[in-house]
Amino acid sequence: MEKFLVFLTVVFCILRFTEACPRSLKNVFSPDATVEEPGCYYAEGMFINADSGTSVDILNGDPLKCRQFCKDNGYESNFVIMQQDTCHCNKAFRHHAKRDKSNCDISCLGDSTYKCGGKNHASGYIV
Predict the structure, then answer these.
(1) Residue 32 and residue 15: Cα distance in Å, rounded?
(2) Which residues form the WSC domain (predicted)?
(3) Do residues 111 and 65 share a domain?
């Protein structure tokens, strides 16, 4: 009976009756659900709202310089995204964009202890 109830819950979620879903399943079936957690992400999965964030190229950038830029420009979120030399403020990733950290294999020029994405990938940091 318990397996049937789990199956029924998944079916409801698939049919978009998300209010019946546990939170973890809601995120899987909601294409607009976003995350702000450290990790490596497929860059095309970045959630970009033109009215809410900004991007800038930072020479010899790293997550700390990116965070300082964001703070200086009025963005309070501690989550920053580095994509090689590009710093993204006040943005997030769609939940399905997270990838294995091995995809983010480019060291940040400002501090090589950090990764600044990889081919078609970006690194997210909480700083």
Answers:
(1) 16
(2) 34-127
(3) yes
State the number of CA atoms in the 13 A half-sphere of 65 facing the CB.
19
Instruction: Quote the pLDDT of residue 112.
Output: 96
**Size (the chain), residues:** 127
Dihedral over Cα of 88, 91, 93, 98: its sign: positive
State the residue range of the domain holding 9. 1-30
18 and 71 inside one domain? no
Q: Which H or E run includes 48?
A: none
Higher pLDDT, 71 or 53: 71
Q: Show the CA angle centred on residue 110, arms to residues 42 and 98, nearest 5°.
A: 15
Q: Does residue 9 sit in the same domain as residue 67?
A: no
What does pTM read for this prediction? 0.70
pLDDT of 93 reads 82
Amino acid at position 3, single letter: K
